[in-house]
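Sample intake sheet
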Amino acid sequence: MGRDNGALTSSETQLKPSARVTGVVYLLYFVTAISGELLAHHGLVVAYGNVLYLIPNFFYAAVAVLFYFMFKPVSNVLSFLAALLSLAGCTIASLDIFHLAPARFSPLIFFGPYCILLGYLIYRSTFLPRTIGVLMMLAGVGWVVSVLPEIGKAAFPLVVPVGILAEAALMLWLLIKGVREDRWKEMALAYSS
């Protein structure tokens, strides 16, 4: 694949993030996000409600950083841009918990393009299934559409299942199958040369 603003050293190649570790952190995001929503919805947590919403943002930010290193051999620039978009979305979502985010500024403005870029990186990689990349790109387009003023509210209920399916498929694949180590190493070596 060649260099893309930087190269992996042999020590970086050996220190790549484990796909299964990334899958576990991704799973922790899902578990904390869903349980936080359920607890808050049923009024079971009032005093620590804000913390319940911050924890999933922390895990999602960690996943974004892990994905940066995973997809760096595919494209350093696009992987870095994707990580920045995800971290910006996590920041806006965290600020919104405390009502500090600008009004009407949805974190989906960042998460949509993040999913599109991540899907593209998955599609271009040879170490994860292209189908998951396509699903992630579709989810990203859906998130972008969901923030449009005229059709966003109508599209949102259709977009959520696609987004959940795409991210759950990626998380489960990483947990169960991992990545094709040989192909990741090939890309990393080609990138570093």
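Comment: Residues 1-15 have pLDDT under 50 and may be disordered. The chain has one domain: 10-192.
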